[in-house]
Sequence to fold (313 residues):
Amino acid sequence: MDFWPEFLASSWGKEFVAGGFGGIAGVISGYPLDSIRVRQQNSKCGSAFRVFRNVVATEGPLSLYRGMAAPLASVTFQNAMVFQIYATLSRAFDRDIPASDPPSYKGVALGGTVAGAIQSLIISPVELVKIQLQLQSKNHKYNNQTISLKGPVDVTRRIFRQEGWRGVYRGLTITVLRDAHSHGLYFWAYEYTKEQLHPGCRKNGQESFQAMLIAGGLAGVVSWISCYALDVVKTRLQAQSQSKSAKYHGIVDCFRRSMREEGHGVLWRGVGTTVGRAFLVNGAIFTAYETALRFFFSNNNNNHANIETENTF
Fold:
């Protein structure tokens, strides 16, 4: 019973839980657009509107939320871990800066880079399952056999039974390459932009909701543009079954064959959908994260006051 008060009394506990709230807000707000992006990346189906119209007409609007259980179930821990690691490492890289001052932009970028690389261990298998669910219709062919959709747990079991741990972590290398540098840029862009929009907020922690939304949205856009080509390759590698008949055999082969068969534009297919989603989702993530932190710090101060009052009797 005493775990949560003690957990939230610590700085890292607040960062962890607030990051989880941010992740949940991001998944719920942007999942339909993410489903459209994945379908655009893995086919020649055209514009986002055409994909949306075709999916809704043939599979129903709820199909845009297919596979959401996998990222939603893990996103609390994954996003919480990223924000907590980032908060810790951004200061560890600049030990000379007083605790009362915000971390330097160099520390922010380095902390974000390491946090992004570490979180790939969690997000890679989750995105594998999510992508395979997003891309299958009512029935899905696997090794020339038609199977019915049974959700993320069934997909995970099937992949593990057929391919083992190597199959579950298919796409890990490309996920690390995508997430490491993009997370460094992500946190740097957020901190820099909100300071420009609301000078002094990095030190006093009083940034406006408008600054949170815009800075978070722009940070998401910048980071996604920087890694989008890698994300296209990751989607294609994780969408296929790992077998002798697999179309792509590794990262370089996927790059070469995709560009040779579909042109250089294939690496930017769906980028418009992604940019729109990135602004919406990351604005929601940082607003939820910062708001939760304010609540926890305020609530923690009130709890300390209550505890001190109780201890006097």
The two ends are 22 Å apart (CA to CA). The chain has eleven helices and two strands. Confidence is low (pLDDT under 50) at residues 303-313. Strands lie at 139-142, 145-148.
